Amino acid sequence: MVPVQYYLLLSAGLFCVGLFGILTRRNALVFLMSVEIMLTAANINFVAFSFQHGNLTGQVFSLFTIALAAAEVAVGIGIVLVLYRNFRGVDVTEAATMRW
């Protein structure tokens, strides 16, 4: 049986990788992938603590988080497409305002 601390270390590592990606990259697609990595880290925590306490609450909450991530990707891809159409690239530092 794998101890819960291993899952927490994995989750902390994934969260740090996602945070590093958000803070250092300027590409909008990398932003989206980094946010997804951070949400995955949160899901690992939910499932690990749910397993430790012997109930399904964390797993159910993890399913809601996955649904939220899917909605976030749909909105994010729309924003990326508008960025690309208006500025001919997905560099977020070029866009100061989103206008028609």
Characterise this structure.
The chain is mainly alpha-helical and 100 residues long. The protein has one domain: Helix Hairpins (Orthogonal Bundle), CATH 1.10.287. Helices cover 78% and strands 0% of the residues. It contains three helices and no strands. The protein has helices spanning 4-24, 28-53, 57-87. Helix 1 runs antiparallel to helix 2 and helix 2 (28-53) runs antiparallel to helix 3 (57-87). The longest helix has 31 residues, at 57-87. The mean pLDDT is 88.
How would you summarize this macromolecular structure in one to three sentences?
By secondary structure, this protein is mostly helical.
Low-confidence stretches: none
CATH architecture: Orthogonal Bundle
Radius of gyration (CA) equals 17 Å
Number of helices: 3
Order of helices and strands: HHH
